[in-house]
Amino acid sequence: MHILKRLGIALLSFLVLLGLAAGLGALMDPHWRVEPYQPHISLPTADTSIVSRRGLTTTEGHYQTKETHVTVRLSQQVTINALVREPVDAPGGHPACLFIHGAGTGRASEVYGDLASALASAGITTLVPDKRLDTYTTFHRDYPAMAADYNKSLELLRSWPGVDPSKTGLYSESEGTWIASVMTANDPQLAFSIMTSPPVYPGRDQMSMAVSSYLDLIGAPSGLREQIPKLLGLNFAPLGLEYADFDPLPNWDKLKAPTLVNFGTEDASMPIEQGARELQERTKRAGNTNVTVRYYPTNHQMRVGSRLSKPGLPLEEHYTHNLEDWINAVALGAQTGDWSTPLVAGSQPRQLYRVPTSTRAGLVKSIGGLMVLLAASLTLPLLAALGALCLGVAGLARRRLRGQSSPRARFGKGISALLWASGAFGLLTLGALLTYIIFIVARAMSLEPINRLQAAYWPALRVLSLLWLVLLACLVSQLISNWLQARKSAQPGPSSALMACHARQSPHTRSRQPVLARGWGHWLVLILALLGLVCCLLSFAFWGMFSL
């Protein structure tokens, strides 16, 4: 009967803990999902060429080009270098284009060289400035301030000899399109805006879609694909990543200049269909229907040879020609009805997931809170183990000094072994879980597919988490059992009176086995271990280990 009672308590403890963990996991779930994207855009032609009825445009290679190094003053204390490439002997009043950096690029001499030179050879003066890096870090980016810096370069380009300021516009890529959105919203005199691989949406929302796409492409387990994107719903303020919430959508409502949008169909990080539709709808409401969209079989940077952005990859063969034709046609005054080629054309895109409209966090609101939780889950059990070892060594030294042969019990019956087992198993399982998540994220960033064995690790980790929960339930049931036995022994009766009499007669045999712990040091170890196990439970719940 005693064994059955113990088993009953253990089973009840497991069910209660499982229900508690599943409930906490549900509360930590932000209750939004990155859904598959539907319906897909249907393109009339795969031909990306751009032709207007305004007449022939200057072709690439028509002019020799000249390169000039200049300095742009951004403030009294800050200047940057820039490169101007211009067509030699081109007639005055020709168009010009300012290039805006995407994420990660810096020096003018290291980026856009092939693009800017190609445009210059077609009669378009280009200016590529250095990116200002003293105010641009991983943790801090101010897009309106960056737009103000680029306006200084724009002023220089507009005043360049031979350039018509009314025919001067922008070329931006990726993160740079957010900067361009500020510039076009504030400057109605811009002649055009070319946006290549624009995120369109706030970074937090767009990255949720991108992460899901990457995980899908490498074959990550579906359960893990549901967990990782919710990290992007957390508050990044403790890390200083407020720019993740920069919202460019209101700026698109003010985009009235002729616009060319380019996407690579091999680019899984951008909303290549949803974003194009969003831009078309918002500019249309603003009265601007002169929006051309082109899809190329390329990566994020319009280059071929790899889905990833790698140095030395060539641009898609038609890309620069189409840019030049479009800019020169716009300079000739091409309006929506002047294009003899479709406004939307190119390789068939297939966006895997939809950018979510909401990324609100669940019970865990902050990345700082999650980091504290994970740190506590890993360090508290280790501190408890270290404390137990120190107490054990100290106790051994005391016994040798006093000549004692056997140690006095410092933890209640069965508690010590279960503490060690649940603590060690929890640490190993949580460490394996975090290692696996890091491994999958790294593989996703490099688009390296995982094999079936690697995919099977996720359900295996869930099984290990349940086994750990069984150990935790055994510990809880042991604590409850010790407490019940102590209460029973404390009740008045012949047996307790006999025990009390025996205790008075034999003081050295009194209560060698405490209910939970004896001594402040062992109580501290017990509390640290239990707190660590609670944190482990919360961590496993956050990562969906107990999701039903």
Largest sheet: 9 strands, mixed
Give the low-confidence spans: 494-511
In which order are the strands of the major sheet placed?
1-2-4-3-5-6-7-8-9
Shape: elongated
Question: By helix and strand content, what is the structural category?
Answer: alpha/beta
Average predicted confidence as pLDDT: 89
User: What is the CATH topology classification name of the largest domain?
Assistant: Rossmann fold
Query: How large is the share of residues in beta strands?
Result: 5-15%
> What is the CATH first-level class name of the largest domain?
Alpha Beta
Distance between the termini: 33 Å
Number of strands: 9
Within CATH, the superfamily of the largest domain carries the name Alpha/Beta hydrolase fold, catalytic domain
**Count of discrete structural domains:** 2
